Q: What sequence folds into this?
C-alpha cells in the first residue's frame, strides 16, 4: 500500500524470488534496474492487525485437513513412496501407542512404561508388511536368536537360496542378508580360533594361500591345540560336566575314505572325545581335523601323519594345559575299518598270509579256536613303518560296525550261492527270498549273470537292514525234506551271531558276560566251519556247514581279539560301541549330500577348494 493508500501487487509464475524482485522495482519506482542478492522486506504491523480483525469478523470457513492433500496409497507408483508412507504411519502408531500404554497404566510403580511395541503386521492389497519397532539388532538376545537360526539351517541343510525363498513366503522371518552377515562373522571368528591350513598332499610344507594350487592336490588340515582349547571348556562347563578336574581326556582318532564322483575321492580324518560316551555316536561330535583329495594310500597318510606328529606327541607326553593352568592327562586311541587301519599300521592286506592287525596268525589257522592269539603286534606281515606311533599298540581298537557288515556279507553270500546252485532257484527259491524280504519291509532283488560265466548278484544292504535280516529272516522255509535240518542250522548260525553282536554293543558289560561271550564266539566259529560227520549217503550222516577257508579276518578278530578288547576297555571304564565308525559314515554322507548334491551350499561358485568350504562348515 503506497502513500496514497493504493494497494500494489506483483506476481511471477517462475519463482518466489522473481516475484520479490518485481515487487522491489515497483516500490522503488525503478522498473529497469537490475536486482541481485537477497531481498528483505519489512512488514507493516498495523496493516496486518487490520487484516486479522477483518478475517475474524467474517464467518469461519472449513479448513481442508492436510491428510486430504495426500494421494491414496493405491495411487502411489514407486516403491520408495510406498515405503515412506508406511514408515510415516509406523511412527504415528508408535507415538500413539505410548500414549495408550500410559493411559491404561502399563507402568511400573515409578510411572515408567514397562511395555513396548515390537512388531505390527499389516495386510495391504494382499501383501503382508511387517513393521518392526525394535531397532536394536545388536543386543545379545538378538545375536543369540540369529545364531539359533544359523544352527538350524546348518543342521537341517537349508541353503541360502532356500532360506531366501522361505523368508519371502513368511515375512516375519529375519531377512536372509542379516542372517548371512552374522554367518560370515561366525566364520571369521571361528577360523581365527581354529585356523584352516591348506597344503599339497605331495608336499611337506603348509601353504596358506591356495590361488595357484592345483585343486586335485590341495588338502586341508586344522588339528592343533586350538581344537582342544575350544572343545574341552565346553565339556567342563556342561551340566552335568563331561570332564571333571582329575579326569583323563580320551581322544579317539578315526579315518575313512569316500567317493564323491566317478573320478574324485576324499579321505577324512576325525577326532572325538570318548569322555562324552554316547554322544560320540552322533556325527555332530565327530570333528573333522583333516580332509584331502585322493585315495587311501600309505604315502598320503604318511604325509598327514607327519603333520599331526608334533601335536599328538605333546598331548600324550605333557597332557593338555587349559586357561586355568590345569593340566589334563591325555590318552590317544584309533579305530577305523580294516583297510584304513592296515594302511596306517603298515600291515599287509587282509588277503595276505599274515593278515591280522593284532597278531601273527597265519591265514590257514584262522579256523583254529584251540589256539589263543593275544593282542599284540603283527611282526610277520608288516611292510611299512607304523604311522601315528604316538598311539599305544593296545589302543588300536576294532570297529564293531564293519565287523558286523563284513561277517553278515559272508553269511548271506554262503546261503545265496548254495541256493543258486539248485535247479529251482530262478523259479521258486528266488521268489521265496524276495517275499520274505518284503515281509521284513526290505527292498531286495536278485540280478542274473550278465555273461555266461558271470555270477548272480543281489541288492547291497545297509547296516539296519542286515541286522533285521539276521534277527528275523526265516531260513527254514527255503529248505525242505532232508535239507530241513540244514536250514535250521543256518538260521541258528545267523541268530547266534546277531545275539553276540548285540552283546558287543552293550552300554555296560560284566566280566562274566565277557567270558561267556568269548566261549560262545569261539563255538560260533567252530559251528560255522563244522566238517561233515559220518559216511556219504549214510542216514546218520551230519552234514557240515562251510569250509575253513570261508573264515574271514573279521571272524578271526571277532572270536580271538574282541573279548580281549572288551576286557581292556572295561578296565578303563569304556565300551566297544563307542569305537564304532557309524557316526563317521553318517558325517561322510552328510558332507557328500551337502556339497556334492544338485545345489551348492552358498547358492553359487566358491573361489576356495571344496575341502576348504567343508572344513569352514565344520567349524
A:
Amino acid at each position: 500500500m503506497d502513500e496514497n493508500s493504493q494497494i500494489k501487487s506483483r506476481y511471477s509464475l517462475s519463482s518466489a524470488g522473481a516475484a520479490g524482485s518485481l515487487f522491489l522495482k515497483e516500490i522503488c519506482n525503478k522498473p529497469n534496474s537490475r536486482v541481485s542478492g537477497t531481498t528483505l522486506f519489512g512488514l507493516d504491523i498495523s496493516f496486518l492487525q487490520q487484516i486479522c480483525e477483518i478475517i475474524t469478523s467474517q464467518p469461519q470457513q472449513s479448513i481442508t485437513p492436510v491428510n486430504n492433500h495426500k494421494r491414496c496409497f493405491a495411487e502411489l507408483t514407486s516403491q520408495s513412496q510406498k515405503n515412506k508412507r508406511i514408515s510415516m504411519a509406523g511412527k504415528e502408531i508408535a507415538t500413539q501407542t505410548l500414549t495408550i500404554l500410559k493411559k491404561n497404566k502399563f507402568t511400573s510403580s515409578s510411572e515408567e512404561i514397562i511395555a513396548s511395541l515390537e512388531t505390527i503386521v499389516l495386510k495391504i492389497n494382499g501383501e503382508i508388511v511387517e513393521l518392526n519397532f525394535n531397532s536394536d539388532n545388536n543386543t545379545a538376545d538378538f545375536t543369540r536368536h540369529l545364531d539359533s537360526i544359523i544352527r538350524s539351517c546348518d543342521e537341517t541343510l537349508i541353503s541360502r537360496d532356500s532360506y531366501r525363498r522361505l523368508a519371502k513366503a513368511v515375512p516375519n522371518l529375519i531377512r536372509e542378508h542379516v542372517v548371512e552377515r552374522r554367518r560370515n562373522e561366525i566364520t571369521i571368528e571361528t577360523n581365527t580360533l581354529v585356523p584352516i591350513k591348506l597344503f599339497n598332499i605331495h608336499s611337506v610344507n603348509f601353504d596358506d594361500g591356495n590361488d595357484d594350487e592345483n585343486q586335485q592336490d590341495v588338502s586341508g588340515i586344522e588339528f592343533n591345540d586350538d581344537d582342544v582349547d575350544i572343545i574341552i571348556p565346553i565339556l567342563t562347563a556342561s551340566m552335568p560336566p563331561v570332564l571333571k578336574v582329575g579326569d583323563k581326556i580320551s581322544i579317539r582318532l578315526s579315518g575313512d575314505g569316500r567317493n564323491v564322483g566317478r573320478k574324485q575321492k576324499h579321505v577324512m580324518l576325525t577326532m572325538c572325545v570318548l569322555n562324552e560316551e554316547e554322544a560320540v555316536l552322533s556325527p555332530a561330535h565327530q570333528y573333522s581335523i583333516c580332509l584331502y583329495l585322493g585315495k587311501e594310500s600309505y604315502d598320503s597318510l604318511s604325509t598327514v601323519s607327519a603333520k599331526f606328529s608334533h601335536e599328538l606327541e605333546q598331548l600324550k607326553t605333557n597332557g593338555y594345559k587349559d586357561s586355568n593352568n590345569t593340566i589334563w592327562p591325555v590318552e590317544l586311541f584309533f579305530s577305523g575299518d580294516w583297510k584304513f587301519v592296515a594302511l596306517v599300521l603298515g600291515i599287509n592286506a587282509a588277503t595276505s598270509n599274515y593278515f591280522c592287525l593284532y597278531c601273527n596268525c597265519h591265514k590257514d589257522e584262522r579256523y583254529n579256536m584251540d589256539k589263543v592269539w593275544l593282542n599284540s603286534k603283527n611282526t610277520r606281515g608288516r611292510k611299512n613303518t607304523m604311522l601315528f606311533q604316538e598311539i599305544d599298540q593296545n589302543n588300536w581298537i576294532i570297529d564293531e560296525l564293519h565287523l558286523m557288515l563284513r561277517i553278515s556279507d559272508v553269511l548271506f553270500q554262503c546261503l545265496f550261492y548254495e541256493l543258486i546252485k539248485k535247479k529251482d532257484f530262478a523259479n521258486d527259491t528266488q521268489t521265496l527270498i524276495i517275499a520274505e524280504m518284503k515281509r521284513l519291509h526290505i527292498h531286495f532283488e536278485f540280478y542274473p549273470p550278465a555273461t555266461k560265466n558271470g555270477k548272480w548278484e543281489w541288492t547291497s544292504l545297509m547296516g539296519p537292514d542286515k541286522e533285521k535280516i539276521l534277527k528275523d529272516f526265516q531260513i527254514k522255509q527255503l529248505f525242505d525234506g532232508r535239507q530241513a535240518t540244514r536250514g535250521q542250522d543256518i538260521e541258528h548260525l545267523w541268530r547266534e551271531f546277531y545275539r553276540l553282536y548285540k552283546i558287543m554293543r552293550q552300554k555296560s558289560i560284566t566280566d562274566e558276560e565277557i567270558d561267556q561271550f568269548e566261549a560262545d564266539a569261539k563255538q560260533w566259529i567252530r559251528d560255522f566251519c563244522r566238517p561233515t560227520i559220518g559216511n556219504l549217503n549214510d542216514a546218520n550222516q551230519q552234514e557240515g556247514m562251510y569250509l575253513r577257508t570261508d573264515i574271514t579276518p573279521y571272524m578271526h578278530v571277532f572270536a580271538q581279539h574282541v573279548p580281549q578288547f572288551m576286557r581292556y576297555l572295561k578296565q578303563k571304564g569304556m565300551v566297544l560301541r563307542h569305537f564304532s565308525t557309524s557316526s563317521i559314515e553318517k558325517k561322510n554322507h552328510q558332507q557328500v549330500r551337502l556339497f556334492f548334491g544338485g545345489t551348492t551350499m552358498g547358492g553359487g561358485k566358491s573361489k576356495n577348494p571344496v575341502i576348504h568350504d567343508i572344513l569352514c562348515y565344520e567349524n
User: Anything to note?
Assistant: The mean pLDDT is 84. The chain has five domains: 1-41, 73-132, 140-193, 197-337+608-618, 402-577.
